[in-house]
Automatic annotation (TrEMBL), chains A, B:
InterPro entries for the chain: NUDIX_hydrolase-like_dom_sf (IPR015797), Nudix_hydrolase6-like (IPR003293), NUDIX_hydrolase_CS (IPR020084), NUDIX_hydrolase_dom (IPR000086), Pre-Nudix (IPR040618)
Annotated protein name in UniProt: Nudix hydrolase 8
Residues of the Nudix hydrolase domain: 136-265
Gene3D superfamilies: 3.40.630.30, Nucleoside Triphosphate Pyrophosphohydrolase
SUPFAM superfamilies in the record: Nudix
PANTHER family: NUDIX HYDROLASE 8-LIKE, NUDIX HYDROLASE RELATED
Originating organism: Platanthera zijinensis
Amino acid sequence: MKNSGGRQKSILLSKPLLFSCIRPYGKGVDVAAPDTSITRASELLDAYEDEYNGVIIDPQSLPDNANAFADVLQSSLVSWKLEGKKGVWLKILEQQAGLVPIALKQGFSYHHAEKGYVMLTYWIPDEPCVLPSTSTHQIGVGAFVMNENKEVLVVIEKKCPLRCSGMWKLPTGLINKSEEIFNGAIREVKEETGIETTFLEVVAFRHAHQVAFDKSDLFFVCMLKPLTLQINIDESEIEEAKWMALEEFLGLPFHRDDKLLRRITSICIAKYQNKYQGFTAQCMMSKFDDRLTYLYHGCL
Amino acid sequence: MKNSGGRQKSILLSKPLLFSCIRPYGKGVDVAAPDTSITRASELLDAYEDEYNGVIIDPQSLPDNANAFADVLQSSLVSWKLEGKKGVWLKILEQQAGLVPIALKQGFSYHHAEKGYVMLTYWIPDEPCVLPSTSTHQIGVGAFVMNENKEVLVVIEKKCPLRCSGMWKLPTGLINKSEEIFNGAIREVKEETGIETTFLEVVAFRHAHQVAFDKSDLFFVCMLKPLTLQINIDESEIEEAKWMALEEFLGLPFHRDDKLLRRITSICIAKYQNKYQGFTAQCMMSKFDDRLTYLYHGCL
């Protein structure tokens, strides 16, 4: 599909646009007179260009006044079209939410939103839009923690849906923003049970679709090694936690009846017996984006 | 962190709320008189409950009129608070974007947005919000495709950022909504080069943060086996594609200087020589959510 072609379509602020870009409104200035045309041909919204011949409008440059915004947005679009620009990115902060309907009316679409702002986009060319879509996945982690007595760390969640109410299960959770996968697993175990662990391997991952808000879900099963044994639960989230004999865990009805969970447990047991190899995490620098990131891979 | 505690916090419509819920406005009805109080104590927004004692407002039940919406939203929040409800989900379609500032004013926050709508949330209890965050990741794929002459399939992208302009690289891309990882890799190779392939293994994955819109990125390296050899490029995306001798690929300046890429290539070569084991994908049913999903794991 056209909107997923390029890999490096992240939106990066680069240099200010070289084309005419006169700032018509100071930061936070409210242009109060709605019936006065304040937009001249030379007045455009402040903007930066991205790496794809697109335009990123400076959210601080938006007038508070609706009519002024409608005028300057229209002029800016005309100008950018003449200059052959492609995608236009418009971030509108929460305090200026009244401008959103105006942008939508001029052909912008919602792209994504976060606490505090909404991002809208406009595709200028008369060809299919190739702007990247917003994020598509949430990332979950599950932790298999077994002690030297072959007991598995299990919990009963307080806030789980009815179908798993009162059920013993592995500690799980969603990773936080910008959190590493293995750190998320270690944190969830610590939060839910008080047990300290170290990361061994990602032994498997599951990919599910249409989970939350029609988005997808990647769930990484992490094998962790316990460093402590004393359980101390988070009472706001967890009903109960304990070390359960592996045989008892394998015999739980939910485990017995669930092929996916059985496969995951078999893998974890094989790993425990040194008969399986998952992926470890190695911190590496890439020249491509000058970032230190983790590469997860098997043993070479 | 509190907002990532539970694993199963997907929002599912369940049964209509059992508490009083009289529909005051028909679908699409515009309540035109802004100065008339049309909200009685018994008039609340249509809503459903979720599995976490939360409330999901029916987007079709929102009045178009701003004052009417402000009144009924306020009454509904009072009622839901009395009933001990927790999170409130409010989806506002694009055509009613004028209601967004009203909801924000009453304490709602942006949660996420997609083409056509914005989702807002409100946390009623006097305790930290535990509503799940929106999706946090985009998922990329890269394909290592080597033929029997030890030639690697490489491309030069047309729309890449300046820093990789004119550079030979592996075919890459973002997966589509609800697309399987290996299918995304097969599709990208087919789109960019015309080469048909089958999936062998996910040999590694990289986790990068603060990539697009401050979101994270998981990039899965897939080993694919070519089924055809005749290259036929997508001229809108690709400048050039060819089979490049492995030795030549290894000697490319960008490859030589990039530790991460060198590691990935070493893994792929080891896999080609049957000296490495990555993760294959197995389609399985889970009783937990009655879904057929793919579990990626090594050889047991």
